[in-house]
Amino acid sequence: MKTKWYFINSGPCSPSYNMALDEALLDLHSRGEIPPVIRFYEWNPATLSVGYFQRAEKEIDFDKLKAQKIGFVRRPTGGRAVLHEHELTYSVIVTEQYPDMPATVTEAYRVLSEGLLLGFQNLGLNAYFSVPDSEEKLLDLKKPKSAVCFDAPSWYELVVEGKKVAGSAQTRQKGVILQHGAILLDLDEDKLLSVFKFPSEEAKEKMRTKLPEKAVAINRIADRRITIEECVVAFKKGFEDALNIELIPYELTDSQKDFVKELEKTKYLTDEWNFRK
């Protein structure tokens, strides 16, 4: 018998709602009201999300965000800034006590990301995990060089056709793991670079030349156009096979929806949260 997890495909949602729903699911799971969950979602409008520890004012050009009508939200997870536009975002919510779930962040990340690995393979792409192979790379991990999320290798980097494609971040609260990340279909480098503050034009150009080595969108490497719908099917099956689970479509109850809205209003829509650093 496969363990049953809930599956939610939210489609395009606002930045504040996306983060509120992820946190609400973590909370509901911690209270035993729902089993583990895998959720897929998109962003409307295109949104820049920053990591929990990032200093937004220092690194982000908010005038450029406003001018391009790009949304903004702070995530409950670490990591750096990500532009969410042409992508499928996933989140996994599961207790730390789940059978065979490794205790360390690194190992748990590898287990949960196995679903992504199989998802990419289901799309016909050559995907594998790369592990840091030198002292220098290990040091790099401890001292990230820039604000742009895709500009750093990390443990068990998910590599597809030789490039990094899915940036993931994790938090643990109330005994529950929340891991979420972006599956990039297309990437607008100009838009991404336009919203960061750089010390000089040289620094910006340097980042521009490095981006294609670091982050690659699926549609740059696939031999055909891949849609969000295809990704949903491929990655849903990937997670089911990797975790040996059955995903059951789930609709939130009215009281659960109210809980999400309240969390959104009191936290993810507030300046206190979004500009706290």
TrEMBL record:
Pfam families: LplA-B_cat (PF21948). It catalyses: octanoyl-[ACP] + L-lysyl-[protein] = N(6)-octanoyl-L-lysyl-[protein] + holo-[ACP] + H(+). It comes from the Bacteria. The active site is at residue 149. Catalyzes the transfer of endogenously produced octanoic acid from octanoyl-acyl-carrier-protein onto the lipoyl domain of GcvH, an intermediate carrier during protein lipoylation. It comes from Ureibacillus massiliensis 4400831 = CIP 108448 = CCUG 49529. The keyword Transferase applies. The record marks 164 as: Lowers pKa of active site Cys. One of its GO terms (biological process) is protein lipoylation. This is Octanoyltransferase LipM. Keywords: Acyltransferase, Transferase. GO terms for molecular function: lipoyl(octanoyl) transferase activity. Its EC number is 2.3.1.181. Pathway: Protein modification; protein lipoylation via endogenous pathway; protein N(6)-(lipoyl)lysine from octanoyl-[acyl-carrier-protein]. InterPro entries: aa-tRNA-synth_II/BPL/LPL (IPR045864), BPL_LPL_catalytic (IPR004143), LipM (IPR024898), Octanoyltrans_LipM/LipL (IPR050664). SUPFAM superfamilies: Class II aaRS and biotin synthetases. Residues 32-247 form the BPL/LPL catalytic domain. In the reaction, the free carboxyl group of octanoic acid is attached via an amide linkage to the epsilon-amino group of a specific lysine residue of lipoyl domains of lipoate-dependent enzymes. The reaction proceeds via an octanoyl-thioester enzyme intermediate. Belongs to the octanoyltransferase LipM family. Monomer. HAMAP family: LipM (MF_02118).
